Structures are given as C-alpha cells and as structure tokens.
Fold these 4 entries.
Entry 1:
Amino acid sequence: MTDSAQTHDIPHPFKLENLQPGKPDPRGRIVRDILWSMPDFKIFKTDVGISPIFSDESEVAAGQKDAYFAMGDGIAEFNHLIHAMRPIWPVRVLLAGQSDSPAARARNHYERELARCIAQALSGKIEEARSALARLHDRLGARVSNRGRITHLVVNTALVTLVIICSLIVVWSDSDFEFGYNIKELAVAVMMGSVGALFSTSVRLRSMEVDPTVSLWMHIVYSIQRVLVGALGALILYFGFRSGIVTGLFQPLAETAPPLAETTVEGAADATAQPFDIYWLSFVSILAGFSEQLVPNLLESKTSDMDSVNENASSEPVPAPQVNTETTPAADGTDVGDREDGQNATPQGATPIFDSSRGS
C-alpha cells in the first residue's frame, strides 16, 4: 500500500496513541520511526524530517507549542546541516536501501540527538535545550566541514592526476602545434601549475575555511575551480615570460638556463626562439599554481601601469612643430635655405621621418 493510499486512514481527532511507525501522522506523512516517546508528547521521524506531536490536553499542548517555536531557529539551522550531510545522488543510488551505511548511522545519531533537545524543550527545560542544540549544531557543522575538506582533497588529487597524465602524453608525443606555440612547454606549465594548486590545498587543508551549509556539489565545484586557477595562472605567467613582459626576479640565471632575451647582430634570435630550462619552468609554474593571488596581482599591476601611461599620454600637450630658421652651408658653398631645388639637409645624427629615396 502506497503512502498516499494510507492518508484516508487518519483518525479524527488524532490522539497520541494513534501515532505508530508505518502509519500516517496528522498531516498524512508516513511515520518511519518514533525517536522519543513521553506520556504527553512524542517525537517522530518522517521522510521530510523530525516532528513532534503534542499532548492531547489543549492547555498542555499550548505550552509545548510555545516551547517548540522558541527552538525554531536552531532546529531550522540543524535541518539545513543534516540535509547537507546527504551524499550526492550517485552515492545515494548505490546506497539505496542500506540503512547500516556509515552515512545513515551518522544521520540517525544526529536525528536522535535533535529529538532529545526537542524533548528537553517540551519538558520545560528550554535553556538547557538551547544549549544542547547549540553544541549539537557545532558538532554537526564540524563534521560537515571536515567532509568538505576531504572532498576538496580527493577531487583535487583526481583532477591533478588526470592533468598530469594528459600533459605527459603531450610531452612524449612528437606533434607540433599549428599556432606556433611550444606545446611541450605549455603542457609542463599547466601540469606544474595544477601540482602547485594541489600542494596548496594539502598544506592548508586543516585550516581551510569550509562553508558547512553548502551542498556537496558546491564543494566539488570549488575543488575543480582551485585546480583551474592554478593551471591557468601558470599558463598566463608562461605567456608573460615568453612575451618578455614579465622579467626581473623570476628570470632564469644565465649559468643555469638560457636568458629570456638574447639578440644577435642580425637580430635573428630572441626570447621566443629559445627553450626554457625545464626545472626553472617547473618551479615558476608551481609557484603560480600555489599562490592564488600571484598572477591576479601581476595582471592588476600591469593593467595599472598601462592605465597610467594612457592617462599621462592624454594629459600631456602636443608640442608645436619647430621651424629651423638657421642656415647651414652646403657642400657647394651655398646655404641650405638658398638651394634652388628646395631640398633641406637633415641635421647630422637625426633619423629622417620621410626618406625620398625610399619612394612614396
């Protein structure tokens, strides 16, 4: 018999003795278990949560309702946390019908503790019930937070392992990238950036601030996001070095690796044509992945520099062109201003803006 088919069996008026496991409660919900039973109230469990049923005497029931409503905020927060303890739906499908699983046992424990707190409130010990509920909330919040930390570490490890495998496949292959990038250096940067993100998560795992009120799916999303930040940060820093925009402290030493910028007489070789030292590139990529703020701060600094240059360029007045009134003797003994062909000589050491010998 289905749950909906049993709702017509609700007795009127509903008495305490009518509340039994497997039968409907006053609202038609099937009672799964009775967690606390006293002569003038009961606390029971349905599929939607924990609920009390009050005394059959109206005056006693009115006092019990006031005490229960006084606990409303704490009970609502507890229910939110206990809902966050639920495993994600693939795990729920695998554990369907297994009431003795660790997650089910933990949930039953906390629900019975909540029933005890409600029983204290209905018995007139409201302050004791509030204190007990606050301690229960803290314990449950710590448990949910620890599960979130474990989720971060497990997801990070799995994702970084996948990135390492894919990067090694790229490094060991002989394929060339059609856009001209050094695909093997890109793979090393992404791989080591994700390793840096995993190391950062591992180092601060115990002190990591985790919101216990968010769902497990959100913890998984945050974990993926952390690895992406590390990999993309290393990739952006790599492009900064390759372009020559980022130099200075991170520049590899000349005796250990090729310098970032090197030109010949013909100008045929530059920083983009030389491979980076693999150990230097790995360390810098790990550093970019470890620190979440390194690359964002670097980009903000470069953006501020560009904004300052643009503001200075727009605020400076354009100088008026200067007319040279002095005359310079030409090779034929005449002054430049007196040349019949109207051509002026270029001052010694200056680069002409227009060169007639190059054509129009």
Entry 2:
Amino acid sequence: MSAPILLCFATGQNLANLIPALQLRPETVWILTTPAMQAQAQVLRKLLERHQISSQIEAFADDDITTLQAESLRIAEKLDGQPVIFNATGGTKQMAFIMADNALQVLGPEVQGVIYADTQHQRIDWLRPAARGSDPMDNLLTLEDILGAQGYRLGEVKSRQPEWIAKVEARSQMTRELGEKVDKLGGLFGALNGLAQKALRDPARPQYHQEFDYAPSQQYADILRQANKYQLLKWDGDIAIEFSGEDAARYFGGGWIEEYLFFKLRGNHPRDFVISAEIIAPDGKTSNEMDALVVHRNRLLAIECKTSRFGRDAGKDADIMYKIDSLAQRAGGLMHKGMLLSARPLDEVSAARAREHGIEVLAGPHLKKLTERLHQWMD
C-alpha cells in the first residue's frame, strides 16, 4: 500500500521515519516538527532527498493539550482530503494519539493507514486498518543512511579505494593463513606487533630493521618465509627482520586482521560494509576511525580489530572497549552492536568489561568462528 502523502512527527530516532518512507515510497512526506525537533526534521529531509523522496516541514506547536488538539485539526484540514498514511512512531504518545484521532475524524476514508515502526523487531505494524497486521521491514538502509540519521557522515574509507582492494587481494593467501592459524601463532603476532610499533615509532625516521628476542620456531619460520615471498619483509633466518615499508609494518602491526575481516564480510554479502573508515561527527570537525562498519537489515555492527595483548595496560584496554561501545551507540542509534576481534585471548578484566558494554568478543582460537557469527547476526 502506498499513498501520495506520508505524515510523521520529527523524532530523535530518524530511522523510524526513514524506513517506512523508503518501504512505502510515498509521493511526498510531511514532517511535523515541534520547536525542539527542528534540527532532526532537517536531518530527515536530507536523508529523504538522497533517495529522491520529496518532503516538506510543517511546524507543530506542542505547548499543551489544547494546542495539540488545535494543531492536529489544522494539519488535518490542510491535507484537504488528500490520501495519507500516518506514521505514529514519532512525537509523544499524546501527539500521536490526538493526531491520529483528528485525522480519522476530519479525513475519514482518506486516511489509508496508521502505522508504527517497530525497529527493534524489524517490522511495520498497521494500527489502521488493523486487519493488515504487520509487514517485515525490507533490508533497505546503507551505511550512509544509518550514519546520516545520527548526523554523522563517512570520511576516507580505505576499502572503497581500488588500489587498496588490489593490494589486499594480492596477499589474500597470506592473510587467510594467518587467520586460520590464529590459535597457533599468538606468540608471533605479539612479537611482530611489537617490532612493527618500534619500526613506526618515529614516522619521520622509520626503523624498518628490527630483531626478535629469540630465533623463531619452525612454525613461525614458515610464516616468515611466506611473508618474504610476498615481499612484506626480509628475514635472515635468525633474529633479524626488515619490513619492506610502512604498509608492511602496519600489516604485521594488526592490519592483517582487518584484511581477514574484509574477505569474510565480502563472502557473507551484507547490505553494506566498509573497512578502515573515518567517521565525521555532526560538528564537522571531530572524527574517529573504526576498523569496520557493517550494515544489514537496517542495523549497524561496529567492529574493532586488535593483535596486541590485553592485560598489560588497563587504561588502554578500557579505552578500546569504550571506543567500540560509544561509537556504535552514537553512529548506530538504537539498532547497533559492537564487536571486538582479537588475535590473542583477552584477560579476565577486559573480558568482563566487554560483557558490561554488550560487546561481543571473538578472540584467539574463537576468531575462526567469525563467519558463523556474521551469519547469525545477519539472520
């Protein structure tokens, strides 16, 4: 069912208005906005413009019950008999009830429906006509939609650059082997991560020549020989290595796990995803980086990747959890989830902190369950 006009109240949760508009595809959307919601109304208007849906903003005073009655009647009369569907999700309960009641009284059969967008359960409930029941929400939103609904936008995104994809694909076999052998290579990850950090400590004077404390074991030696094959580093067969450059150092400093995630996501076909993305805040000045952002079925999954050992720096460990939780909430609104991928097991304190923030952790040998967990989240 579609109608020329979709009527809604501006709200702090813009996706509850955007999703029905994208699914019903009205000719235009009337956005009723109280003084407190004017900024959110403008955000929704911009989101609708991205999808070629016209809209107009209508001021709606909310001083008291008498004002709500008068404003609802005014809007109903201004609709002048045009077919309309009213989205009752936004606004206060009083506003939604009075608007629906007056619209039904004034417009009668021209009110083709009253809906409620239940984003938590991913459905559109039809309050009128009641016999229609509910429609499942379509898999509609892109990353730009979800970020835009919160006032955020994407900055630089590595995984959307052809040269980055070509580079990552060229060493895909190496990356997959690191991921599949993660339960056996914890010590090597820690050593290489530490050497990579030392190599890049002074960006103006990188020190790519580094030395292990001890000669690597045979299993680690096989990985180092493969890295040499891909020209990521040179190894003398003993304790000395030399990273081939900044990109190689960053790869062994943790970048490989982001690339491993890239292949897993690409193979699972979510609605949208990015790797190594810059997120620009509503003020246009503040920015943060996230290792991965995934969108599917109108929900956001924010993922951070780590190869360093947890439990050595409690403050740093806490900052990682806070970053995942806060960015996921601010950028994803109500429909968000945070995830941490760690090449090495977490200490008890960090694991407890992750649970406290509702962050799912795949660490050490459990990293192999990544494909399974992505499937479960997407279903």
Entry 3:
Amino acid sequence: MEENGFTRRRIHTTVLTSNKTYLHVSIATYKFARVTDMPLDPRLEAFLADPRNHVRPPPAHVPMEKVRRAANAAMPGPETVELAEVRALAGPGDIELRLYRPTEAPGLPIILFMHGGGWVWGDLDTHDTICRALARRSGAAVVAVDYRLAPETRFPGQLEDGLAALRWLRAEAGPLDLDGTRIALCGDSAGGNIACTMAMVAGNYAMGIRHLAMIYPVLDAACASPSQREFAEGYLLSGDGMKWFWDCYLGDSAHSGNPLASPLAASPAELSALPPVSISTAEFDILRDEGEEFAAHLRQVGIAVSLRRHDGMVHGFLSLPAVEDVALAAIADIAGDIAASFED
C-alpha cells in the first residue's frame, strides 16, 4: 500500500543513543513506537518540574515582542568558544548575517545555519554558542541567518530569506575568502525545516549543496504522530505550543500540505535531489517520529541518511546547560558528518 508515493513497509534503521551505544531496531514507516526503555535524563527533571520551562501558546493579550524577549532570554547555549573571527555581514536586502570563522585558513567551506524558535522567536544571539561550537568542531565557516519571523512574516517568507542568503553567499564567497562550491545547510527545530526546504529548492537548481543537517526538525504540519501524543505535555515543547507555532507560520491551513512548508508531505520526486542528510532526534520530543519517518522516506528514494536518536533528551537539548555534555557530543557528530561531506 502506498501513501504520498511511499510504500508502507517495515524497514531497518540505525539509531545512535546519547551514550554512544548503537541499537539496530526495526521501525515501521508511519507507525513509530518507543524502541528503548531509557528513562528521561535525571539532570532534566528539575528543569522540567518548573512550569515556566514549557513552551505553550502565550496569552492572546501579551504583545509578541514581550513573548520573544522572554523566550530568547531563556535560550542559553552550551558553551562559549573563541574563534579566529566573528563578525556581522550585511547580507541581501535587510537580512543580517553573522560569520564564524574558526581559523584564518583561506577558502574555508561554509555551513549556512538557520536558527530554531518555531519561526516565531530566536535570533543570531540565541544560537551564537551553537554556531561557535559547530564552526570549531567542523573546521568550516558558519554563516547564521537572521530571517524574518512569524506571524508578521508568514510562509514562505522565511524560506525566501534563507534562499536569498544562500544565493548571496555563493556570489560573495570569493571576497569573503570562503569556498562557495562547498556549502552545507544546517538548522535546529524550525530552522531545520527551513534548511530542509532550502535544500529541496537548491537541488532543483543544481546549487551544489554538499550536506543537509537537521536537529530535532519540524517536518509535519499534521502534528499527528505517536510521539506528538505521547509527549504532548511535560517535555518542554508541548503539543499545543507546536500547533500554535504552525498557526503563526502558515496562517492559512491551505498551506499545510505544501511540501515546502511541511516536508513530510513531499513526494519521492520532490526529495530525490537532496544531498546526504543527517537527522538528530530526541527521545522525549513530540517531533521525534516525524524526523525518523522523514529519514525512512529519504532512504526509500536512495538518499544517504545518518539518523541519531539521543535517548533521555527533550526538544531543544542543545541549548540546555544541564546536559551540556550531550549537546556538545551531538554537535561534534553533526560537525563530523558535514566535514566528511566537504572532503568528497
């Protein structure tokens, strides 16, 4: 039986846990279930016990700028890393960029990074330490994009900003002493969604993207997976919060089936031009199943996929100081995948 061009069948995948052990498990496409009995990391229990540390729809009377300030202030990074150069770039139009150069070496490859925050909050500062760590561990220059936010700018504005930054970077790589022929796309959460759709578009125009890395990505506007139900409350990102993010981003539900908004709806043909992909999921995350299901779709169309599930973790763990060691290990794994792609 087929759905959206993908066959319902039982496949095998490799899942990487946060303690570096490998599990070879059988996962049924469209029917994901818990495959380990790992408990929630105990270091997160106190954090999650505080109701202020859960993402839910804000009261309607609270101004969006106040919501953003509070959310951004609650997003510390795992580490501060000194680099050879960190500076602002005047990107295309009004889009601000930030360059992270790990060394003075000429012709560094590039990671174009799209930050998370539900398309609604997050900025260059909230993900600064993640970008620094990614640059240091990959050896590549990281360029972060300060795209427009929802609901003031809805789909496809964020995708358009990302593509504008990509085109600008390819054109300006030489003057920046970077290698515009070696570019990877990376993003976390909603930023992973944007990076994914950028790669889908870039593949159609032969823009030479070497790798796509997504960290607990948002990929399915339907919000109907088993993990969406199982972890809807009590694990930082709530089910109602995720639906509110989608409402802010799409505005009109008519876009919910558009694969450039909801990549899990993409057909095999629409995925076939993607580069090799890395996907990192968190065990106790409502977005876990859609990330792993997307990996299954990619494998069915012959795309090389590195899928890692980080057991005991919740959504957003890269920004949680309590589990800094897991966050840094996850960044190192992603950086390694990207660095390897630049050597091909």
Entry 4:
Amino acid sequence: MKAWPGSTVDPGRYWLLSAVMGLGHDRAAWPLRSHAQNASWISIGLSDTSSRLERGFQSLTRGFYEGLSRWREHSRIGAAAFSQYDRMLQRFPALAEQPDQRRPVAANHIQNGLLRLGYSMETMTRIRGSGLPVISTFYMGSLAAERHTDLPVYSLICDVEFSRAWVPSRPKGSRIEYLAPTARSAERLMAYGVSGSRVHVTGFPLPLENVGDRNRDILLEDWRRRARRLADPTCPLTLLFCIGGAGVQASAARSLLDRMGDAIDAGSVRLWISAGVSTLAAERIRPALRPEWLESDRVRLIHEHDKPAYFQQFSQALHETDLVITKPSEMVFYAGLGLPILLTDPVGYHESLNAAWLLETGAGDRLPPDFDLDRIREMQSDGRLLDWGCRGLQTGLGESTHRILDLVAAPAT
C-alpha cells in the first residue's frame, strides 16, 4: 500500500463503509480506498461480517429499486409504478417551502428498528476496538457506527440533496459529522437539525488517479489535452456514455450507437459505453457492437464482474474522455475533472435535483433528442463544450478527495 503523491496521509487511517446499492455508494468509496484500512472498503450486506439481517435488508432494497428502475424503462405501468414509489418514498420538501425539516420521517423509525435488532452489529464488532475513524458512504453505515461503537463517524453524502433518512431521529445529540458535496447539501443537513459545526463542505471525492497531487497535476494535464480537442471542430472526440448501476438506459446507449454509426465508421468520433458490473446491461449492448469497432477501439464496452476492476478501468478511460453522457447521478460531480456533461433523464427525485445543480453551475446541459455528429461539431464550434469543461473545473471539486483526507485522516501533529 502506498499513499498518492502530495498526500500527507498514511494508508490504514480509517475504516471505509459502503453498501450494495447500484454503483453510487461504491463510486464514492473508490477514491478513498488507498488510505483506508486494508486499502479497501467494507460493503454492508456483502462482506463476510454481514449478518443475515444486513444481507436480507440490502438484497431486498437493492432488488426492489433496481427491478423497478428497469421496469420503468420498458412499460407505461412500470413508469407509473416507479413514479408512485418516487413520490411516496423518495421525495422531500423543498427548503424554500419548509426551512425546518427536523421532524423524523417514517424511514427514521424503520432505521431505529433495524438498529435495535442489531443491524451491522457484526461489522461494528470487528472495527470498534481499532480507534480509527469511520467514513460511510451509506447512511445506515454511519448510523450503525454511531450506535454500536465509540469511534469518530463521518457520513459522506452522495447527492446534492437527499432525504431525511441520512440524519438520525435526534440529530442534536448525534456525534456524526457530515462530508457535504455542495453548499446546498450543507443547507439541507442543517434544515434536518444537524449543527453547522458538524457539517463540512468538502465536495465529492474524485479518483486520485485522475486528480493527482494537491496541485492536481494529472487533472490539469488531462484538461490541457482535452481543451485542445474541445476547441477544434475538426478534431474527433471521445464520448463516454454511462449506463446506471441498475442497468438503466441500456436501450438509450444502443440508440446512440445507431445514430453515431456512420461517424464511428468514419473515425469522426469514438463512443465508449460504461455498463458497470451489470451483466444484464452488457449483454443488451454487445449485439450492437461491430467487431471492427472494438478492434479499432472506436467503440469500447467498459464492464467488469467486480467493482474494483470496473472502477479502475473507468478511471483509466476518463483520461481520454472528452464528453460524458450520463443520467444525473453522482456522476454530475465528475464535472470537477473538467469533463463537459450531457444529461439524460433523471431516475428519481434526487437525480432531478442533481441535474438542477449541474445546470446552475453551467458545467453541462441536457442531452438533445437529435444528438449526432452535427450537434457535436456545433457544440465545438460555438465553444459550449470548452465552456462547460472550464465551469466544471471552477467548482473546485477536483480538490475534494484531498480535503476529505486532510479532515478525516491526517496524522496528528
């Protein structure tokens, strides 16, 4: 194990917890793994220390959400069912309408019941004598660490705005500290009753293999090369289309392949498709991939069977990526690498708020329905792509990982 250049943090400085829920929680953990205990993270509901209660809860919630998300794509009934689920369980009042949202919601009572039943007790027994702080990218991990250990606990928020479930029923007496990706995230935490002294606007962690040292040497070198390509309408660009962790939007990726086929044949564009660890999504994409595209690397399928291998391949692809097409998940924060972003439709209320944040920063736009090579050339010619990349850099998110490491894991002096 080794620390990244420019970091004052040693490996094994904290425990890192995540959850088996799509890719978002693990994507937040990936940039922090190098300095974590065992240079990795513990996936609640998957690790060998998970109880049957944890595995059952995670399997149920993950299976329900991912199945409903995919069903939404393929039928009107599925879309209506997801809309009802989203309205009943995922929506929360706007801060402008209700500034004080300290009152617990149904999800908090469910969490309290699971914790009383011993949720994550086995995992916490393993770590509680270590004296090391805990970073959790999933709210149940931070709640369990607070209840079952006396360790310092940090909850890493994965969206711009989020439900009351991320904060305990009685936040005033809690010791959990929060790592907020944006100022708006901090405002929502305080509306839920969290003291401002326990809220840190750190940004969202981005991979150090794409950031580099404190001077962001790798990020800025990648940006210099990308900026030249974005500014030149004659220069072929590399597009990265991200399919959601639940396998959502595989059909949209196939549609884009069809529209870009001639441009790919001509070498005018490269299209890489990220299918995560979803075998279902990868199998839906593969029939549309021509052998000559794959052999020439004009089309690439980014897919692995385990998450560390996938994230490693994904981070490597980002060095050559010029434009990201994604739903507004945690991927909106990757604008901080100087990557222009085009957004597909949100899946869930929280993603619509992520989209609103990205559009406000000016680091991207919504994907045009007629998106093709002509639209790419138009965006290059009028400077939009270059402007979006610049505005993404200006968010300061490229410094997020180092900020988190300094706050949580810097050696005592």
